[in-house]
Amino acid sequence: GENVEQHPSTLSVQEGDSAVIKCTYSDSASNYFPWYKQELGKGPQLIIDIRSNVGEKKDQRIAVTLNKTAKHFSLHITETQPEDSAVYFCAVKEYGNKLVFGAGTILRVKS
Amino acid sequence: DAMVIQNPRYQVTQFGKPVTLSCSQTLNHNVMYWYQQKSSQAPKLLFHYYDKDFNNEADTPDNFQSRRPNTSFCFLDIRSPGLGDAAMYLCATGRDRGSYEQYFGPGTRLTVT
Question: Is residue B101 within 8 Å of B1, Cβ to Cβ?
C-alpha cells in the first residue's frame, strides 16, 4: 500500500515568516494530494489540495507544490499568523477514495 | 450551513460495555467514512460506505461495526470496547464515488474506563 512520510514533525516560526512542510509518497500512480489543518479538539479541515495534472496551486497565503517525478509535495504558508498554529496533515489518495495520511506536523507560530 | 455533525462530542464508556457513536450530514453526500485517530497520530480509516455499499478495511477489528440506515446518518458501534479503543473517532463525507475531497466532522472523543 501507499506509504506517506511527512517532515518535519514540529515546526516553530516567527509570526510573519514562511513555513514549509514536505511529504513524500511511494505509489507513482497516486493522483490526489490534500492538506488538512487540525486544531486542538476539532476535526481535520481541508485547506488546499492538488491533483497530479498540475504542479502548483495557490490560495491566498497557502500554496501546494507537487513534483510527480520525485514523488513529493509541499505545503507553503507565507506571512504566518498565530491562528495558523495547528497540526497539519498531508494525505495521498490510494485505491478507491481511501486517503492515507502522513504523521502530521505541529506548527507553532510565535508572536 | 451544510455540515457534518457528530454526537456526542465526548463519550465515556466502561471496559466491555457496548457504545454507539453517531454521525449525520446535511451535505447530501453519497460517501461516508469512519476514522480512528489516537493521540498524536494520523487518522486511520476503519470503513466507509458508498451509498449502502459497505467497505471494511482489512485491518479493522471485528469489534467495530457500522450501520447506515439512510443517506444522512451513519453509526459506529463498538461491541466490547477495550482500553486501546480510546481515541477520537472522526466521521467524514464525500460527494460521490468519483469525488476525492473528504469533509470531516468535529469528532467524538471516546474514553474507556
Answer: no
Q: Are strands B108-112 and B10-13 parallel, antiparallel or unpaired?
A: parallel
pLDDT recorded at residue A2: 84
A42-65 confidence digits (pLDDT tens): 999 999 999 988 899 999 999 999
Q: Which residues of A, range 55-94, sit inside 8 Å of B by Cβ? A: 89, 93
Q: State the distance between the two ends of chain A, measured CA to CA, in whole angstroms.
A: 41
Residue ranges for chain B with pLDDT beneath 70? 1-2
Separation of alpha carbons B45 and B37, rounded Å: 9
Confidence at residue A52, expressed as pLDDT on a 0 to 100 scale? 85
Cβ atoms of A76 and A65 within 8 Å: the answer is yes
Q: Report d(CA B97, CA A89) in Å as an integer.
A: 23
- 3-class SS of residue A83: helix
Residues whose CB is less than 8 angstroms from the CB of residue B109 and which lie 6 or more positions away in sequence, other chains included: A41, B9, B10, B11, B88
CA distance A81 to A76: 13
> Taking CB atoms and an 8 Å cutoff, what residues of chain B touch A96?
55, 97
